Amino acid sequence: MKILGIETSCDETGIAVYDDERGLLAHAVHSQIALHDEYGGVVPELASRDHVRRLPVMIPDVLARAGVNLQELDAVAFTQGPGLAGALMTGASVGASLAMALGIPALGIHHLEGHLLSPLLSADPPQFPFVALLVSGGHTQLMRVSGVGEYALLGETLDDAAGEAFDKTAKLLGLAYPGGPALSALAEQGHSGRFHFPRPKLGAKHDDLDFSFSGLKTAVALACRQAEEEGPLDEQGQLDEQIRRDIAAEFQAAVVEVLTRKSLAALRAEGLSTLVVAGGVGANRALRASLDAAARARGLRVCYPEMELCTDNGAMIAHAGALRLRAMHSTPPAYAFGVRPRWDLAELAPAVIRE
Length: 355
Ligand code: KG4
Ligand code: ZN
Description:
Blueprint: E1 2-7, E2 12-19, E3 23-31, H1 33-36, H2 44-66, E4 75-81, H3 85-102, E5 106-110, H4 111-117, E6 130-135, E7 140-147, E8 150-156, H5 162-172, H6 179-188, H7 214-230, H8 241-270, E9 274-278, H9 285-298, E10 301-303, H10 315-327
Helix pairs in contact: 2-3, 4-10, 5-6, 5-7, 5-8, 6-8, 7-8, 8-9
Bound molecules: 5'-O-[(R)-(carboxyoxy)(hydroxy)phosphoryl]adenosine (KG4) and zinc ion (ZN).
Residues 111, 115, 136, 279, 312 line the site of zinc ion.
């Protein structure tokens, strides 16, 4: 079964062809970072227009690289939500109309389900059930995953998502959008411990699996202000480079510690031994090192998607589409598409996979 996957929920156009027997045949991601750079964040209208420009070029290109022609496709999977409404509409309309023209099913996929199942695309995939730590720009959740579509929410952020905290803190430190990778690079040159930031929602008082990151961002803002007052400043009157590195290192250490300890607590609470990490922040090297060390010490297993499949991509959508298609008893072509900019993962129906 060959599935074309289309991802346009935010600022990446992702296209892929996945074959459920041969695996991922080809994929491409076009990032709009340069387009939104001067605005310091994603401009939704510009994002939609860019998807419209890229889709007709990238789809034939990825099909050609996969060695698959349109008539060989069995279904088209597109991201139906959550995400930016206009951006979602571009992928949904192109995906559904292409499927209609070919007379094959169009599958609307939940973006987070795509992320959640993406470690199954790796060479040594995890087995159900597992605990998933979903850490993206918009979400921070711990879920129990018992099968495709069987997701029980164990805990989530009460305010900012982990990626959002990285992005906002990066902005405070004068780094360009999107700040996560840049902040992490800065942190690698610094030392945690010179500053002391809180570890929100850890400690004896907190036995839940929820997160809160907005206080951490405030702690960074205060540290920056204090450091600006006390100096030293560089020749341009900016914060000294080593201070910025040390603030970044302490911020990253705090986020990593909270994510690691809550993930371990979730595994303990569920009596499970496999953790799957998905979403953009899963690319963070410090987080991976901390989770790996904790897992080694306790005989647990941590699985990540391939590095290039951590952030938004079409491969995870094509792959989730293939699993969904396999679970359907009959697959009547359905072309009435509607996007769902806000969509709770727990609303998804379980899928019964036929071998
Ligand atoms: O999953 P994703 O590509 O998009 C969403 O669905 O949100 O995640 C993007 C988020 C951004 O906040 C970005 O700054 C963050 O993931 N991110 C990172 C790293 N790479 C991406 N955060 C920390 N360290 C990284 N290496
Ligand atoms: Zn995402």
